[in-house]
Amino acid sequence: MPHGPHRHADIASQAGLSVATVDRVLHGRTGVSARAVRAVEQAVLDLDRQATQVRLGARSLVVDLVMQAPARFSSAVREALEAELPGLRPATVRARFHLRERGSVADLVATLDRIGTSGRVSDGVLLKAPDDPEIAAAVDRLAARGIPTVTLVTDVRDCARLAYLGPDNSAAGATAAYLVSQWLGDRPGCVLVTLSRTAFFGERERLEGFRAELARRAPGREVVVLADADGLDEGMTGLVRDLVTRRRDIAAVYSAGGGNRGIVAELAAAGVHPRPHIGHDLDADNLALLRAGSLHSVLHHDLRADLGRAGRQLLRAHRLLPGAPTSTAAAVQVVTPHNIPARLR
Predict the structure, then answer these.
(1) pLDDT tens for residues 204-214?
(2) Residue 327 burial by Cβ neighbours in a 10 Å radius (0-12, 13-18, 19+)
(3) What is the C-alpha separation between 135 and 142, in angstroms, rounded?
(4) Strands 124-128 and 149-152
(5) Distance between CA atoms of 241 and 126, rounded to whole angstroms?
(6) N- or C-end of the chain: fewer Cβ atoms within 10 A?
(7) Are 90 and 58 in contact (CB under 8 A)?
(8) Given CA atoms 175, 179, 184, 190 in this order, what sign does their dihedral have?
(9) CA distance 249 to 189
(10) Domain 169-300: top CATH class
């Protein structure tokens, strides 16, 4: 298997495998699993993408990105992190990726516990995961081994995580409620709010912020919540299809958790046309829906800025930058088809 200029030790570190296993894969020997082959192939691709940055810097760190999120969003986060790696000075930082669209808490705990047990030990974890006591305990175990964790987009409470980086989710929910109330005025109908998973603390914060502000601005406006389809189009399609058999008075949608292609398609098929439909995050799907007019606005936060700040907190934890690690909740930007950030056009 071609592996370019990369050393077996670097591939092993990136893949989370032993050097001996990597050697067997690269030379096409027997006795290796298909999973190991895929891990080595992905590691070589990761190292190729990060090669321009790896040659620089005095100290080398390895950071693990662990996410449970739809592929459209985790891909955007991955691209943002790789774009920020060259700026994380004075160290050279390389990233490894553990991305899944769905799975159990036990699966995520197993991933966190595996980090650093084979190949090179991790120097830090960037984590998007449910707010669950077992996840919190796994973060504590990482901290006890000297591996700091920064939570992204959604927090994990009551644990030794280093910092939280991402949007101010409560303010984002309140912003969505403000927009909905201004858009709807006195028009009748309920507001549909969709969450990917109620286990995500950030999405619960969005819902709470939305409910509180909408109750203040539009007392009596009903909120209907659909949740726990992992923010995936196919899951949201089924939930919305069931809802519209019972409710035809959906006046607005606040999608706090994704799956907007499925939501839009199912509502249109049922002849229900809410206005506004507000989404979160300028991933590829939401950009296309915004340009097409199916989404009327998107609450956006700069992923690259978030990932850059998250990386700097890890550098501070290793005393490579001055100051103590700090949490930063970013304000969201209301994006319409007319003010899409230039970087995303």
Answers:
(1) 999 999 999 99
(2) middle
(3) 11
(4) parallel
(5) 36
(6) C
(7) yes
(8) negative
(9) 5
(10) alpha beta
In 3D space, the residue among 120, 51, 39, 38 whose CA is nearest the CA of residue 82 turns out to be 51
Residue 55 is predicted with a pLDDT of: 47
Domain boundaries, the chain: 1-52, 169-300
CA distance 152 to 62: 17
Q: Note the pTM of the prediction, 2 decimals.
A: 0.81
**Burial annotation 228-256 (CB, 10 A radius, 16+ → b, else e):** ebbbbbebbbebbeebbeeeeebbbbbbb
User: What are the structure tokens assigned to 345, written together?
Assistant: 């056009």
SS3 annotation, the chain? CCCCCCCHHHHHHHHCCCHHHHHHHHCCCCCCCHHHHHHHHHHHHHHHHHHHHHCCCCEEEEEEEEEECCHHHHHHHHHHHHHHHHHCCCEEEEEEEEEECCCCHHHHHHHHHHCCCCCCCCCEEEEECCCCHHHHHHHHHHHHCCCCEEEECCCCCCCCCCEEEEECHHHHHHHHHHHHHHHHCCCCCEEEEECCCCCCHHHHHHHHHHHHHHHHHCCCCCEEEECCCCCCHHHHHHHHHHHHCCCCCEEEEEECCCCHHHHHHHHHHCCCCCCCEEEECCCHHHHHHHHHCCCCEEEECCHHHHHHHHHHHHHHHCCCCCCCCCCEEECCEEECCCCCCHHHC
Q: Please tell me the predicted confidence (pLDDT) of residue 344.
A: 77
User: For residue range 49-80, what is the model confidence (pLDDT) as tens digits?
Assistant: 665 544 444 578 999 999 999 999 999 999 99
